[in-house]
Amino acid sequence: MASNYSNWVDAADEQEKALANQVENIAIAGKNGSEESPAEAPTNDPDDPVAEIKTEDKDLPASEKSLLQKLLRTKLVQSSKQLEIIQKDPTSPLFSATSFEDLPLRPELKKGVYAMGFNAPSRIQESALPILLSEPPQNLIAQSQSGTGKTAAFVLAMLSRVNPALNYPQVLCLSPTYELAIQTGKVVEQMGKFCPEIKVRFAIRQESVPQGTKLTEHIIIGTPGKVTDWAFRTRCFDLGKIAVFCLDEADVMIATQGYHDQSIKIHRSLKNCQTMLFSATYDIDVMRFAEKLIPDATVMRLKREEESLDNIKQYYIECNSPEDKYQAIATIYGFITVGGAMIFCQTRRTATWLATKLVKDGHSVALLHGELDVSQRIDVLNRFRGSHEKILITTNVMARGIDVEQVTLVVNYDLPTDMNHQADCETYLHRIGRTGRFGKMGIAINLVDGPKTMVVLSRIRDHFGKPIHKLNIDDVTELEQLES
Ligand SMILES: Nc1ncnc2c1ncn2[C@@H]1O[C@H](COP(=O)(O)OP(=O)(O)OP(=O)(O)O)[C@@H](O)[C@H]1O
């Protein structure tokens, strides 16, 4: 499997940059929640995750009774045995009744899947793949919770549909950010390890194709701006020959204006093409639009109460001032001894300010937002993946799709809101979904700095119908004393 990573830090492409940066300000209007109810406190219920962590965490000294400390010190990692148990639970989104052997996959692809350490398909893989691999090809609009293996599902379908004897692009996959495009390319590379004849080309910012060139790679993975440029201006591949079109994070591609126009323009130029849409969230209007766009698609939807994952435990800390908020972060920093954390800010300005202040105070943190150039962004993400920095301070640009295994904690320094300052529930779900991937445990902590933010938090809680427990700031202070 050869993927073309070379030369993608060449010349700047301002149009693509502007569009990619829009993702930071994604605003899918939040829906009004039902009546607000008071936040629940952690209980001693054996089903309560906190109680679960308490009993499992035998190594903690008895004096360290703080909830936050326990949460952050606990290894939130599932062993393969635990994952096996989860995958046998019919209520889990990772449940599968079948094995990869039962799926209509080529032997080389099964080999690739096993080489990645996958033992059994997740629910979305098990149910989407027979549809995606059927003859004649069927269209699919699929929803499945974050971290449940959607990427593997569509990558397996993409690889299955390639005819390596034909040296032109046959599969096109669009992602909203180039980090995500690169990550998907990596999955293609790993899963296609035993199909070395299948070649991938990235259509991302700063990749360029000389005029008159015709691409010979089989799969194009890219962002909408660059793909539009290549399809309609450079004309280095023929959209009419694309047999599979995949829209990852489909809801944001449909709901964000620039991406919407480009994705639809591309879709309209396809002929006899199988279309697949994947996301963890679909706003009602977006789903309606998607169903109109692909009227004959099989639709796999989740009920609202199924959208958020029980293995991600949600908390909030009440802060009375910006200083309190900063203090909460600085304190949390001290307790990140295992795993890693992503801290989401609503603007680049806040993210930069927070990172600068933490660094000034002697903490080691990474900062990633849309204003950084390509090489900086990739360098920062690679360092975070490699745990060189355990904390990544970022914006919505990293809210979707990014899969960094060791992330055990997501902090919403600012809660996600749309342009009307209403709760952006979809972005919330994607942000917290950066932890708790594929059955692992995860923690999400929201900083609430006043009545308006509390309303936003209540809306999010009511929207998903899941408790968001209060963490007492006094505990945090207590922890600090214990730690020193
Ligand atoms: N069948 C499987 N067995 C074990 N691990 C798996 C399996 N499928 C996927 N994974 C792993 O689970 C993690 C999450 O998968 P993936 O990134 O595909 O989720 P996703 O549903 O696309 O998430 P998001 O909604 O955030 O885009 C990845 O690290 C992936 O390697």
TrEMBL record:
Region (Disordered): 20-59
ATP-binding keyword on record: yes
EC number(s) reported in the record: 3.6.4.13
Location of the motif Q motif: 98-126
Domain of life: Eukaryota
Domain Helicase C-terminal: 311-479
Keywords attached to this entry: ATP-binding, Helicase, Hydrolase, Nucleotide-binding
Family annotation (CDD domains): SF2_C_DEAD
Record-annotated DEAD-box RNA helicase Q domain positions: 98-126
InterPro entries in alphabetical order: DEAD/DEAH_box_helicase_dom, Helicase_ATP-bd, Helicase_C-like, P-loop_NTPase, RNA_helicase_DEAD_Q_motif
PROSITE patterns given in the database record: HELICASE_ATP_BIND_1, HELICASE_CTER, Q_MOTIF
Domain Helicase ATP-binding stretches: 131-300
Protein name: RNA helicase
Source species of the chain: Orchesella dallaii
